[in-house]
Design brief:
The chain has 84 residues and is mostly helical. It has a domain of 47 residues. The protein has three helices and two strands; from the N terminus they run ααββα.
Length: 84
């Protein structure tokens, strides 16, 4: 039972390290302007599916035709850090 606190500590450190890898997209000049991380319409449309389903993306708000999730504005999706 003396190893249990060490196991809990090891798991906690692993989870903190895994969750702290912030997946922010920065421009090449070192600024913090967010960018899309793909080149197809699933990533570059004004409104995107959070799951980036193939064939999704639109210039208008709506629902993804593949998974049914609500589209989110690209700027909001990328600005939020886009954590997978």
């Amino acid at each position: 039972m003396k190893k249990l606190p060490y196991l809990i500590l090891a798991v906690a450190i692993f989870l903190i390290a895994a969750c702290s890898s912030n997946h922010q997209h920065e421009n090449g000049a070192g600024g913090s302007e967010a960018k899309a991380h793909g080149t197809t319409k699933e990533y570059t449309s004004a409104y995107v599916c959070p799951m980036h389903c193939e064939g999704s993306g639109s210039d208008q708000a709506g629902k993804c035709p593949v998974c049914g999730m609500d589209y989110v504005p690209l700027s909001e999706h990328v600005h939020d850090g886009h954590n997978h």
